[in-house]
Design brief:
CATH superfamily of the largest domain: Nucleoside Triphosphate Pyrophosphohydrolase
Order of helices and strands: EEEEHEEEHHHEE
Radius of gyration: 19 Å
Largest sheet: 7 strands, mixed
CATH topology of the largest domain: Nucleoside Triphosphate Pyrophosphohydrolase
Helix content: 10-25%
Strand content: 25-35%
Number of helices: 4
Distance between the termini: 51 Å
CATH architecture of the largest domain: Alpha-Beta Complex
């Protein structure tokens, strides 16, 4: 076996899962059951096995720690400050994903004692450098709202354009003009009018739409 002159850092993956609930952007966190930072909240993730590719490792850790499967992950950034993990030199490749809250069944396992949604506006004291990872993921998400169909990955199977607009306004933190918003999103490939309507309170019935997606995010010209 060949021996290298330089020590090798360990590689981990961390996963930022966003959803919208109660008109807030939320992130999925696990409570660590092992040291370091035992009892602290953290992002799902863990070490990459020697025979694994990065995304496979991220999906495996996500399943083991939260029970979440079958979602599309997008690579976010690589975090590699020398002191980010007290155990050893660890480089982490972070991923993020967007999901409707009703499509996930959370079940903590492995080295997580709990898995819960937390509002991004009031996060607990997170382990490692996970505050920076969540912050960067949120900034990336807000930026991509302007040039991609990423917001549609938050939506249920059927939705109104009003519900979609609230998703944009929640994430971007600013109100949007209703007429201009609807004109723009109806140009997206894959948005279809179902021919159905739904009444919301005393308002007149609103049209229901679907979005045909292969699990990837389309970019808007």
């Amino acid at each position: 076996m060949y021996h290298y002159d330089y020590p090798h850092p360990a590689i981990t993956t961390d996963i930022v899962i966003f959803t919208l609930a109660e008109n807030e952007l939320k992130v999925l966190l696990i409570e660590r059951s092992n040291e370091p930072y035992k009892g602290r909240w953290a992002l799902p993730g863990g070490f990459v096995d020697i025979d694994e590719d990065l995304e496979s490792a991220a999906l495996r850790e996500l399943k083991e720690e939260t029970g979440v499967t079958g979602i599309y992950l997008e690579q976010l950034y690589t975090f590699g400050k020398p002191n980010r993990d007290p155990r050893e030199r660890v480089i982490s490749v972070a991923y993020y994903a967007l999901v409707p809250i009703d499509k996930l069944h959370i079940k903590p396992d492995s080295d997580a004692s709990k898995a819960e949604w937390h509002a991004c506006s009031s996060l607990p004291d997170l382990a490692f450098d996970h505050p920076q990872i969540v912050s960067l993921a949120r900034d990336r998400l807000a930026a991509k709202m302007d040039y991609s169909t990423i917001a549609l990955h938050f939506m249920p199977d059927k939705f109104t354009l009003g519900e979609l607009q609230r998703v944009y306004e929640t994430i971007k933190g600013t109100p949007l003009d209703k007429r201009n918003f609807r004109k723009r999103v109806l140009t997206f490939n894959g948005i279809n009018d179902t021919g159905e309507k739904r009444r919301d309170g005393k308002h007149r019935p609103a049209r229901l739409y679907t979005f045909n997606t292969t699990g990837t995010i389309e970019f808007i010209k």
